[in-house]
Amino acid sequence: IFGGGPKFDEKVKMLLKIVGNIKKGGFLFIGSGPAPAFLKAHPDYENIKLGQKPSEKDVAGAKEVLEIARRKNTSVILPEDFLATTQDLSQKPEGSDKSYLDSKKLPKNIEVFPVTLDELKRGTVTLPSGKIVSTEQIFVYDVGSRSSAALKQAILRLSKESSVVWNGALGINEIPTFQNGTEDAAIILSEVSKNK
Hints:
Radius of gyration: 17 Å
Number of helices: 7
Largest sheet: 3 strands, antiparallel
Low-confidence stretches: none
Strand order of the largest sheet: 4-3-7
Order of helices and strands: HEHHEEHEHEEEHH
Number of strands: 7
Helix content: 25-40%
């Protein structure tokens, strides 16, 4: 399980090593942090344009990971859905020296909503308020419930002898609204380990 985080480029070497050693039947699950780079690196999703713009270096690293996984016949599970906003939380609110992420607070009146990969592929998303926005205005900050269900199914298929390596939160762990994916993964692993 790879949640990533803000220093994705520093973690690519570790990720390349891990994906090269995943045993038959294993998988790599990508969290919301590195998802924009992996979506841009994947031929089925490369035309999705999000508010988060991964660097060329991050996209190249994600492509390398996907290529090694393809050669080793390792499944890479990308999120099927996300919790998102139209607000770039890395920005500093007016009059503040800290970003929303650094202050661990969401802006007032922020609209948080689920969005699927299919919606992102269309290029526009209808917000709960009814407003239609370009996906370039969408910032993904956590994996959604479909993604958590896909992770659970992948874990249930693992053999009893399998190990799970988990690196990083699947969303923004410092902001409660975006902790669901990480909490779901922890619950799934706890339940599976009790039953195996």
